[in-house]
Amino acid sequence: MNVFRILPFAWMILIALPARGAVADDGFQAHVFGFLDEHCLECHGDGTTKAGLDLTKIRPAMSSAEQINLWTRVYDRVSKGEMPPKKRPRPAAEKSAAFANWIRPHLTAADRAQREVVQRRLNREEYQNT
Question: How much is the pTM?
Fold first, then answer.
């Protein structure tokens, strides 16, 4: 069997498999990144990083702790109404709520995937007390 005939099919399979923590294409990218582009990137992107937040580093796959922290920071600020600031044109409350509702389930799933349950052995005192 020729390996070069199988290789392209193997790559197609690997590309089709979603990465751990990846966001399904359910409109998430269009809604969320559209909101970020419209309301956030002027101050937090393209070389401007107010408050140390660079949204050009944000990725749809919430697979690393860094990405989860970044998404959490964005979610908290928008859902509390802190961002965009009052000096800037603000989206309607429904639009901000819809943005937060798109992020919440993905952020919750990514957070659960990052948590690990570590089982450890009991020490003597703990064992006697059980």
Answer: 0.65
